[in-house]
Design brief:
Helices cover about 30% and strands about 10% of the residues. It is built from eleven helices and ten strands. The strands form three sheets. Strands 6-1-4-9-10 form a five-stranded mixed β-sheet. The protein has a three-stranded mixed β-sheet with strand order 5-7-8.
């Protein structure tokens, strides 16, 4: 009797195979339930950081306006030593980047050796944390040369954005226009109804290819309206073009310039739509096409459903990709006289 008791005391319970499988299944279900929530929380944090970046840009732009009584021009003296310094460069000293600003001699072009310090200095405020793959891809030609990048672009307006033959006038109606300065007094639509900055995904850095949906087509810019651009871009056959971010491959290549493909966008197609160009000369070079022809450079992001937009009053709103085209157009112009419904965006 005593021997049987001792044996019983030394016996221990163990999981059966079925019990083990049940435990594993429960753990797998819990992970499946929690992982999306964790990913959603991380994206929410990245979106908040993106919103904060845009607010910093807004404060800098308004402080610039307080100092100079105008917003900065998008670029100037286009064909004089490549002098296309843009709005980002102009507001550096109001972004606590005074030392970097002081390295810039605006008499030289952005790619001149005298401009290398600025050209190769990355500013974290200019980057959206949700769009990181192009920054870490070693095969990215823009990364290979070390150019500074930006996800945030100034609103050029909802017109064609075409330049005249002498590169002295740009046809557009946003807050950031080439060779022009825009004062708040010119924003007669109201600062709460006019976009100042939005975001766009980085391209792969190539200067001569379109690696994502978009194409050239020959139309005289003077005869092209925003409706012409809207319809023509939507009709483009993008079969065979690669990429999933709907931006041209030169997108965001450097914050130093005021080129459309790098630091500005237009309110032609709704967020996360195609980008395309009216090409006046059937050129194959992306730079000349986007500067000499009418353009539809579209806002885009990796935030699900839409993009963050900084309004001219300093507020940031999340605009869905499903926003109606007339509403999106209205948000792009400074003085179009459009009436925007409070629930329109």
């Amino acid at each position: 009797m005593e021997s049987r008791t001792i044996i019983a005391r030394h016996q221990r319970a163990a999981f059966t195979l079925i019990e083990l499988l049940v435990v594993i299944a429960i753990i797998a279900v819990l992970i499946a339930l929690l992982l999306p929530a964790v990913q959603s929380a991380r994206e929410a944090a990245r979106r908040i950081q993106c919103t904060n970046n845009l607010k910093q840009l807004g404060l800098a732009a308004h402080n610039y306006h307080s100092t100079y009584d105008t917003f900065p021009t998008a670029c100037f003296t286009y064909q004089v030593a490549g002098n296309t310094w843009g709005q980002h460069a102009r507001i550096l000293s109001f972004l606590e980047q005074g030392s970097l600003y002081n390295t810039i001699n605006f008499s030289f072009g952005i790619v001149a050796q005298e401009s290398y310090t600025a050209l190769y200095t990355q500013i974290n405020t200019f980057l959206c944390p949700s769009d990181t793959d192009r920054m870490t891809d070693a095969s990215n030609s823009a990364n290979a040369v070390g150019y500074s990048r930006t996800n945030y672009r100034g609103n050029g307006g909802n017109d064609t954005g075409a330049l005249n033959a002498t590169f002295t006038t740009e046809q557009n109606n946003g807050p950031f226009i080439a060779y022009q300065t825009v004062k708040i007094a010119r924003i007669t639509d109201g600062t709460s109804n006019t976009a100042l900055f939005s975001e766009a995904l980085l391209g792969d850095g190539s200067a001569s290819t379109v690696s994502v949906p978009g194409d050239w087509f020959a139309v005289t810019p003077a005869g092209a309206s925003k409706l012409d651009l809207y319809q023509a871009c939507n009709a483009l056959n993008t079969t065979g073009l690669t990429g999933d971010d709907k931006q041209n491959s030169y997108g965001g290549r450097t914050w130093a310039t005021g080129w459309y493909q790098a630091t500005r966008y237009t309110h032609i197609l709704p967020p996360n739509s195609k980008s395309c160009v009216y090409n006046v000369n059937n050129a194959v070079n992306l730079i000349s096409a986007t500067n000499n022809g009418a353009t539809a450079t579209t806002a885009s992001s990796r935030h699900p459903g839409g993009v963050n937009v900084l309004m001219a009053d300093g507020s940031v709103r999340f605009i869905k990709g499903s926003v109606a085209a007339p509403t999106w157009w209205a948000l792009g112009s400074t003085g179009g006289g459009e009436v925007i419904s409070a629930d329109g965006f």
